[in-house]
Amino acid sequence: MRLVAAGGTPSMADVAQEAQVSRRTIYMYFPTLEQLLIDATLGSLSLNTVDPVVAEPGGNDPVKRAEQLSRAINDHSAETMHLGRALIRLTVEGDEPPAGGPRRGYRRVQWIEQALAPAREKLTRQEFDRLVSALCVLIGWEPLIVLKDVRCLERKQADDVLAFAVRAVVEKALTEAQSRGGRK
Length: 184
Prior knowledge:
By secondary structure, the protein is mainly α. It has helices at 2-5, 12-19, 23-29, 33-49, 51-55, 62-75, 77-91, 106-115, 125-138, 141-149, 155-179. Helix 9 runs antiparallel to helix 11. The radius of gyration is 18 Å and the shape is globular.
């Protein structure tokens, strides 16, 4: 992110040197320089937009926290949608993620887990993981693209639909856990 912010287009060798890792390590996570540069650009955007929201969204209410996260990510979608589409295009090839982690979206998972932190004590590990996975489908560029391309919704409409869906899924998970008596 520092190299991109400094201007110019760094090479994989520049990035490896800055990160103090081998080029091979970088290629394990970013098969192309284009994918790495898109991710770095998005990383710098998230430091100023999403990270502050995740740090203290909605107190101890996981429903409110998850909705605030969804809206924070969607709030900047207009200026980053071209990057999101490019990153999706670059990462849809192949069936298996690269060794060591997901092909993309690792920040999203971390943000969702942080937003849902107050729910950890109410859900089993399996329920928590299922909820994180469900929110991965509802938060990010992919659902926005579907709502824009398939439903022809404007950004604000799509944001409201996704906030509704996020609330419904988190509330359902918490209700199910409560009905069985909480974490076991």
